[in-house]
Amino acid sequence: MSLSHKLRWSHGEATILSTAAMLADATFLVDGKPFKPFARAPWLGTVDDASIVGHLRVLAGDFVGLPFGTGGRTAGPNLPEWGSLLGQPATGTIHGPVAHREWSIVGGDDESVTLSLDYDPDSVVRKVERVITARKNAPALDFVMRIFARHKAPISAGLHPNFRMPENPGRLELKLDFDFGLTHPGQTAEGDPQEFESLSSVPRNGARVDMSHIPLSPRTDKNVQLCGARGPLTGTYLDEGMGFELDWDRDLLPTLMIWHTDGGIKGEPWNGQFRAVGLEPLASAFDLHTDVATGPNPINKRGIKTWVDLDPAKPLEIRHSVRAFAV
């Protein structure tokens, strides 16, 4: 059974669940007005099927992945450099134990909460802590994932903030500077280039789509990875006059994956109901097997690191934040 902790501060309130240490809900007060930028699955609180992975049962605003992804996909026929990498069989649950299991809430008050999760004895990871703190006198949340290792090793890692889609196409504007972008190798159509330079011109099915203004029309699912991210990402809800800034440690997580999902996932618990954009800072090769991320792949061959290094001598801290603003 999932437990919860509530944050209440001068500029908002938020609820964090023990399942997947999920940020289930958050309302920011911006110039005295409520603003809710995060996504929230319509089934949250109604699914108790243990066969459904933990973060999907409570899918909402923000969780973490360690290792990130799981593998078990197939590559498009025109991307031979990805073929053998995507074909590796899935192991474990997607995004690792942190995204599936029940965490312990070890302490908290109105402005901060600390959760902890022990990994299995055979894992390189010994323990993970997650601290979520309301920023004093600001409509913002600060997050820390602290990883304790048993021995030195590389591992894929990622953050998984999810933001709500507006109803009207193109009315959430995304801005981020980056070195180069790649479409997901499992979604790259034959004949399409995988690489692109601008989020406003992303290859898709022989044409180009503008992923700097979402949701796309017609509704579709599309994943891309922006490599060599520079500076924070901003998202602006053009019809609301409100926006958010997503900032993170780009030295550790140098890429950002955009998971644009607009009702296209079927089966339980999705049933075509979920609309959101995951804006996911990563040290990973898309959502593939951690062995793909830590071995040679087409991203790290270009100098973009796709893993983090664990060391038992010092816990690894990965930080990110979400700040709301008025336009």
From TrEMBL:
So which domain of life are we looking at? Bacteria
**One Gene Ontology molecular-function label:** carbohydrate binding
Q: GO biological process annotations for this chain's record?
A: carbohydrate metabolic process
Q: Which InterPro entries match?
A: Gal_mutarotase_sf_dom (IPR011013), GH-type_carb-bd (IPR014718)
What is this protein's name?
Aldose epimerase
Q: Which organism is it from?
A: Devosia insulae DS-56
